[in-house]
């Protein structure tokens, strides 16, 4: 007998044994032990401790009737069953059913179930219990698994959760309740959008204003004194903490009548555009209708701003100036109204001074400032292809090898990350014993320059520190400016960039110029790369131990720039001319906005006058220290 035949016989024997086994045994040898019958909640012989859950979704007084009717109905309902004992009516009023947030009575009821105080819960409907399917099914299962299990009776749907076939029906009803909430949320959002499009905004109570019978904001003169005092003090140089302390000492009430102030409430008042007469709708939005958590609207939804909606307490220019001061204070710049300065002549013409702590200026502001000093035929681009004279070497077909390919570590460079700027030791040594520098940028040429500075100048940066009695480079934190620099250069914020520099000196004048248009790029290795990074690696080549060292794709087929283009490159051409360098020229102000801001002396007078009106005494001693 071959193996195939043996295998066929073996399978037939297995099948025969299975058939024999499933014919069963002699019924006389078996005894059935009956299961306990399903629980009958109406069994008169068993006492049940019953809890009732009631909920209404708003605090509207008209909902009070629904709330009271639910309580009265279920009190009578429980009393009609002599074997039921009412533990408590757990009720949440003015609470949404899509989230457990703030549903204190609901959570307390669940806790009492775990403590063994409740045998059964009765509620009007699935939507009263929960409009979130996960919460509804989750708590039903948790209560069913307790020993003894606790059931929930949904009166409207006729569902009792301890019934074996209840979960499918309950899941369907819970899904319907959740979808109903979703539809209501969408309808409400659409209604809000239509109102905002027509300039119909919500106007809640605000310090300095009352709401009249037409729903419009009108100035409350007594409260407006507090608002003016806050703005003038901040313009004069006080911090939010100092202003809060001053208002607390003066016993000035908040809108809610509190006499103790904190810096957060001061900041909210300073940032509220309604004090200058405008109104912005939809500053926040709610991404998830289930948890109701709002988040700041960062162009996720349409915003609407109405100018001149109501009478202003603070001038528009003062309000804008305060916003600049707040933004810059975030990065450590205090008491200075930001202003761009651009150099109008000399070898650094068109360069804009950078203050690392000013965040109020964006890429278009730096571009406009750079171009503002060039007029008519005064071209920005200085690199031109020359004509070759007869007998001279024609080097137009030759390239100068890029320094990046010739050990760039021996040359001055700047390393730029999304957090800081850092120069190498070679760059530091070029400036010898200089501890402070000033950073300048030429946005059109794509150049970054540094020149010596002093500690007293407001744009100065400390770029060195002592290490073992030797000066070494120090990282310069510039979170306020670096995002703008990345935007100007079109860089990926997940990458680090290294730009080589050219050092120029004429007598005591020194300047380092870095080319931002030809950077080396360090791309994090795969295990460190940001998941949002979509830059294709095929555009680069090269590698290093910790990251991928990359170069622009158009470098693949060249060793460097054309000889004449390189010799007249912007970072070199200006310094080869015989004109005066004037590298320490101060920049001229470039105003991105022409603001008529209350000057410090005037602000101080206003502060004194307002406090005098409040206290009916001379307050000068109270406001002289900042």
TrEMBL record:
Residues 49-199 form the Resolvase/invertase-type recombinase catalytic domain. Residues 206-332 form the Recombinase domain. Signal peptide: none annotated. Residues 1-21 are annotated as: Disordered. This is Recombinase family protein. PANTHER family: DNA RECOMBINASE-RELATED, DNA-INVERTASE FROM LAMBDOID PROPHAGE. SMART domains: Resolvase. InterPro entries: DNA_bind_recomb_sf (IPR038109), DNA_bind_recombinase_dom (IPR011109), Resolv_N (IPR006119), Resolvase-like_N_sf (IPR036162), SSR_resolvase (IPR050639). It comes from the Bacteria.
């Amino acid at each position: 007998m071959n193996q195939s035949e043996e295998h066929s016989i073996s399978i037939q024997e297995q099948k025969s044994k299975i058939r024999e086994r499933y014919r069963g045994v002699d019924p006389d040898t078996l005894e059935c032990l009956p299961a306990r019958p399903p629980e009958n909640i109406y069994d008169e012989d068993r006492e049940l401790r019953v809890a009732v859950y009631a909920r209404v979704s708003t605090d509207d007084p008209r909902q009070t009737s629904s709330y009271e009717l639910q309580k009265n109905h279920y009190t009578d309902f429980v009393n009609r069953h002599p074997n039921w004992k009412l533990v408590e009516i757990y009720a949440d009023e003015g609470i949404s059913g899509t989230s457990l947030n703030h549903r204190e009575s609901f959570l307390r009821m669940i806790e009492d179930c775990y403590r063994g105080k409740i045998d059964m819960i009765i509620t009007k409907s699935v939507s009263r219990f929960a409009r979130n399917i996960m919460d509804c099914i989750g708590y039903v299962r948790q209560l069913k698994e307790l020993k003894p299990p606790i059931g929930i009776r949904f009166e409207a749907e006729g569902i009792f959760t301890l019934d074996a076939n209840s979960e499918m029906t309950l899941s369907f009803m819970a899904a319907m309740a959740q979808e109903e909430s979703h539809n209501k949320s969408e309808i409400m959002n659409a209604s809000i959008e239509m109102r905002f499009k027509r300039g119909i905004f919500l106007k809640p109570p605000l310090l300095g204003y009352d709401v009249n019978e037409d729903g419009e904001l009108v100035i409350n003169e007594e409260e407006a004194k507090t608002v003016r005092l806050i703005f003038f003090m901040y313009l004069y140089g006080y911090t939010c903490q100092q202003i809060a302390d001053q208002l607390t000492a003066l016993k000035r009430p908040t809108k809610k009548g509190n006499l103790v102030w904190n810096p957060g409430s001061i900041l909210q008042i300073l940032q509220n555009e309604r004090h200058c007469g405008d109104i912005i709708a939809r500053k926040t939005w709610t991404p998830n209708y289930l948890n109701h958590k709002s988040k700041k609207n960062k162009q996720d939804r349409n915003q609407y701003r109405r100018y001149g909606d109501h009478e202003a307490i603070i001038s528009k220019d003062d309000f804008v100036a305060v916003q600049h001061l707040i933004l810059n204070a975030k990065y450590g710049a205090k008491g200075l109204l930001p202003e761009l300065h651009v150099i109008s002549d000399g070898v650094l013409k068109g360069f804009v001074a950078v203050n690392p702590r000013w965040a109020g200026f964006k890429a278009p502001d730096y571009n406009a400032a750079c171009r503002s000093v060039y007029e008519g035929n005064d071209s920005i681009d200085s690199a031109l292809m020359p004509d070759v004279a007869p007998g001279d070497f024609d080097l137009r077909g030759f390239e100068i090898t890029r320094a990046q390919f010739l050990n760039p570590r021996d040359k001055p460079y700047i390393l730029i990350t999304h957090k800081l700027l850092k120069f190498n030791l070679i760059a530091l040594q070029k400036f010898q014993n200089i501890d402070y520098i000033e950073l300048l940028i030429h946005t059109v040429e794509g150049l970054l320059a540094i020149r010596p500075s002093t500690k007293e100048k407001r744009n100065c940066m400390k770029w060195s520190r002592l290490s073992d009695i030797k000066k070494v480079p120090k990282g310069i934190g510039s979170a306020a400016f670096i995002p703008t620099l990345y935007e100007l250069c079109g860089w990926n914020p997940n990458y680090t960039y290294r730009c080589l520099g050219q050092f120029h000196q004429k007598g005591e004048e020194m300047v380092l110029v870095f080319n931002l248009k030809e950077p080396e790029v360090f791309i994090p290795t795969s295990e460190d790369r940001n998941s949002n990074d979509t830059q294709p690696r095929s555009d680069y080549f090269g590698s290093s131990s910790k990251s991928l060292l990359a170069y622009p794709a158009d470098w693949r087929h060249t060793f460097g720039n054309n000889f004449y283009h390189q010799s007249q490159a912007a970072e070199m051409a200006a310094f080869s001319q015989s004109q005066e360098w004037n590298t320490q020229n101060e920049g001229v102000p470039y105003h991105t906005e022409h603001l008529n801001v209350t000057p410090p002396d005037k602000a101080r007078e206003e502060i004194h006058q307002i406090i005098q009106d409040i206290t009916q005494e001379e307050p000068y001693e109270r406001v002289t220290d900042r």
